[in-house]
Amino acid sequence: MVQAPKTVPQDPREELAIEQVRKALKGLRYGTVTLIVQDGIVIQVDRTSRTRIDYSVLTQVGPGGEGI
Predict the structure, then answer these.
(1) What whole-number distance in Å separates Cα of residue 46 and Cα of residue 28?
(2) What is the predicted pLDDT for the residue at 59?
(3) CA distances from 66 to 39, 51, 58, 60, 62 (A)
(4) pLDDT range class, residue 49, cuts 50, 70, 90
């Protein structure tokens, strides 16, 4: 008979940290997620979001000009 693999219960702090990382990554297009670890435990999650500016709309030639 094949036995199901035994799973080791995770530390509740680890589960909470993983959930916080998931939240930080959700919806992030450009940016960084930084984890601060102290004594092997995640104590802080920082999210820096970047906004990319699309300048391609400025290359269209307007009346009386050559564009940018």
Answers:
(1) 12
(2) 82
(3) 60, 28, 11, 8, 7
(4) very high
